[in-house]
Amino acid sequence: MNSWAAKVLTLFPDMFPGPLGYSLAGKALMDELWSLDAIDIRCFAGDKHQTVDDTPFGGGPGMVMRPDVMDRALDEVMSDLGDLRLPVLYMSPRGAPLTQARVRSLSAGQGVIVVCGRYEGLDERVIEAWQMEEVSLGDYVLSGGELAALGLMDACVRLIPGVMGSDESPEEESFEQGLLEYPHYTRPRTWCNRNVPEVLLSGHHERVRAWRQARAEEITRERRPDLWDRFAQDRDPSRH
Ligand code: 6GU
């Protein structure tokens, strides 16, 4: 098939699809709008003890994943893909922080190969040799790349045409115009002495739109001055 393909290299293949087997992503997986293969790195170990890691040269704590084992795993994934060239991502807190712009471009491509590290991570040489793109989900440390890979794939899969319901378009959500999203309200109109903002009950579409835009800008300015500065700059490039 030529649907969006995710190949995950991991020591814990049973973690997949995990949460991606549910809800929108799970339905889309069943409908073959995308595919997911979890490849067990341990199958590519060279010895009878199935060793995948070793102690770091230079000393220090922890273990490092062997480059030769990872290389064999990637060779097999590549030969299964034939002529299809997919980007090789390595989930790591040292990577470039993942952005919605990168998610959009990955989602618009043909798929991803995602390498998940454990322990102290991968031998640097195999990262270089395969020109892996190191990707981080943020400035905190997870125990391994698997949860990060699930997050990245979820973000990509929901943008595949046909995955999100037609009523849930991404245009208005956080980051799509460089702002955080406006707040949402539903019934009841009064809850615990708190009222839904009057303008949302007015049926006046232009006033609702303007209110939501103002709230999105206010929330972004308060919570994410980094995003706000970029938004203000893009809106009014004459200001520096
Ligand atoms: Cl991509 N991997 C790991 N292990 N920890 C992380 C991360 C990735 N992003 C944030 N923390």
Secondary structure class reads: alpha/beta
Quote the average pLDDT: 96
Number of domains: 2
Largest sheet: 5 strands, parallel
What gap, in angstroms, lies between the N and C termini?
49 Å
Strand share of the residues?
A: 15-25%
The succession of helices and strands, N to C, reads EHEEEHEHEHEHEEHH
Helix content: 25-40%
What Rg is obtained from the alpha carbons, in whole angstroms?
A: 22 Å
Low-confidence stretches: none
CATH class of the largest domain: Alpha Beta
Query: How would the global form be characterised?
Result: elongated
CATH second-level architecture of the largest domain: 3-Layer(aba) Sandwich
CATH superfamily of the largest domain: SPOUT methyltransferase, trefoil knot domain
With strands numbered from the N-terminus, the spatial order across the biggest sheet is 2-1-6-5-7
Summed up, the helix count is: 7
- CATH topology name of the largest domain, in short, is Alpha/beta knot
Total DSSP E strands: 9
Q: What ligand molecules are bound, each kind once? A: 6-chloroguanine
